[in-house]
Amino acid sequence: MPTYEYRCTKCGQHVEAVQSFTDDPLTECAVCGGELRKVFAPIGIVFKGSGFYKTDSRGTSSSRRAKDSKESRKESTKESTSSSSSSSTEKSNTEAKDSKIA
What we know:
Elements: E1 3-8, E2 14-18, E3 36-38, H1 59-101
Antiparallel strand pairs: 1-2, 1-3
């Protein structure tokens, strides 16, 4: 069962109470009879690192992205190689024509 902390609005007294979720909250201070308010604190658990998001748990999509990026690099390398080889072929054809004319 959870422990709740209350603070009195009149005297500032702090009270901790172990209550079930179904129990009604405390409303009256035992010391002065003032109104009690729940004190909310940050949670005591922190998740650090990867693997806590929906997108982190899917290994296939990240490996797909890696494959796609590798393939795109290969294609760009092929294109640059083919464009450089075609330009060198054009140069040699031009040089051959020039030598025939002369």
